[in-house]
Specification:
By secondary structure, the chain is an alpha/beta fold. Helices cover about 35% and strands about 15% of the residues.
């Protein structure tokens, strides 16, 4: 079968993946029982405001609460307050939101219920520095993490040892109330303790793990931060702590489920689909090069998959920021960087079209979710005065794709199950 409009086809695949993670669809099946006492809804993440709106619609009983999300990601709620704050670098609004969330769960009883709506992005949205640290310290840590190339699991292990709210501490503050966490995972492997640095889910990670990651990725953190993380005060509550004995965790959406939905949509349209993995990690440009090699092999030799086929993958790649070009940082994110490397790898090939995008609708520093590429991408960039390899070297993929009108800008989606990479070979 020949796809007449590859871009429209790829957009339909993205939409199917996002729809499978829509909280309007997923929350209803995970509602807790009504408590004797109060119901408090809390939450953090790029998808948490839409989760709150969905929860309000289906909850049969009184509720109150507070959720923090990224600027521009709010949703209309009647009974749950929505606060917007900065992401990916925290700000004072996030600091105030963290304070109020901790305050909201204080003084509850065993008859009360706390429902936590957790999604990716919550780490930056919940700055709450440990004693002796400041918001400026958290900002410095976040900037170092984002530039390091460390995988998200390593980043969040570090973050939760510098906080009064992450690493299960928000859940501990809610004791003795029952706490039910509804989690939309953006973490490869779907460990809920790592989503948003686990404010309501403890895990067994320790200071040694955090220090090992700092050393492995050559991070230079403020002296006060290093002093704290080397002290016992940095230890998060143990998973066996009694304060977690009434906790439940429900994974309500994940990359794996969304990729299956994307594959089903492709097959509905007459295209076979294969899923490489829902948890691919690594440097974005290197992963892009590998995907390009696979696509070329299929296009030229009809192996390891036969044309026409849609190749899908998920997970979260990383970007190591290189030295600024002419003193200016490049614009872009991991999906556009992946796709620029991919475009270079398939340059001149026929019958290959790709979309790489973040399912929350925002990729990196700008307002696009990702971009499109095909075998003509590099030549079209060249015609527009853009050197694709130079743009890749300077982490400037957004500028390259913007120059040829191939950015993908769907806007905030209301969910976040990590990245979607869809490659059509026909």
């Amino acid at each position: 079968m020949t796809v007449l409009d590859p871009k429209s086809f790829l957009i339909s695949i993205f939409n199917a993946a996002v729809a499978a993670a829509d909280p309007e669809r997923t929350i209803r099946d995970h509602l807790p029982a009504r408590p004797k006492g109060r119901t408090i809804v809390i939450g953090a993440g790029k998808g948490s405001a839409h989760m709150a709106a969905a929860f309000e619609k289906v909850w049969d009983g009184p509720i109150e609460g507070l959720v923090v999300t990224r600027y521009g990601y709010g949703a209309r709620c009647e009974r749950i307050e929505i606060i917007e704050a900065a992401h990916p670098v925290p700000d004072a609004a996030g600091l105030e939101a963290s304070r109020r969330l901790l305050e909201k769960v204080q003084g509850l009883t065993a008859d009360d219920l706390v429902v936590a709506l957790i999604s990716g992005g919550g780490s930056a949205l919940l700055p709450s520095p440990a004693a002796g640290l400041t918001l400026a310290d958290e900002i410095a840590v976040n900037e170092a993490l984002l530039a390091s190339g460390a995988p998200i699991a390593a980043m969040n292990t570090i973050r939760k040892h510098l906080s009064t709210i992450k690493g299960g501490r928000l859940a501990a503050a809610a004791w003795p109330a029952k706490l039910v966490s509804l989690v939309v995972s953006d973490i490869p492997g779907d460990n809920p303790a790592l989503v948003a640095s686990g404010p309501t889910v403890p895990d067994s990670g320790n200071r040694a793990d955090a220090l090992a990651s700092i050393a492995a990725y050559g991070m230079k953190l403020p002296d006060a931060v290093m002093a704290h993380i080397n002290s016992p005060e940095a230890d998060a509550p143990d998973p066996d702590d009694q304060r977690f004995s009434r906790n439940e965790v429900h994974l309500i959406a994940s990359a794996g489920v969304s990729l299956e939905a994307a594959a089903a949509e492709a097959k509905r349209q007459g295209i076979e689909a294969v899923i490489l993995s829902d948890s691919i990690e690594g440097e974005a440009r290197e992963v892009g090069g590998v995907h390009a090699a696979i696509a070329r092999e299929v296009a030229t030799r009809n192996r390891p998959f036969k044309k026409p086929v849609l190749i899908l993958s998920g997970g979260e790649t990383t970007v190591t920021l290189r030295a600024p070009v002419d003193g200016k940082r490049g614009k872009g994110g991991r999906n556009s960087e992946f796709l620029l490397a991919f475009a270079i790898g398939i340059s001149g090939a026929e019958g290959i079209h790709a979309l790489a995008a973040d399912t929350d609708g925002i990729d990196g520093s700008e307002d696009n979710a990702g971009a499109f590429a095909d075998g003509s991408t590099v030549s079209r960039m060249r015609a527009a005065g853009i050197d694709a390899k130079a743009m890749l070297a300077g982490n400037n993929a957004w500028t390259a794709f913007n120059a040829i009108g191939d950015l993908f800008v769907p806007g905030p989606t209301g969910t976040n199950v990590n990245d979607l990479r869809a490659i059509l070979i026909s």
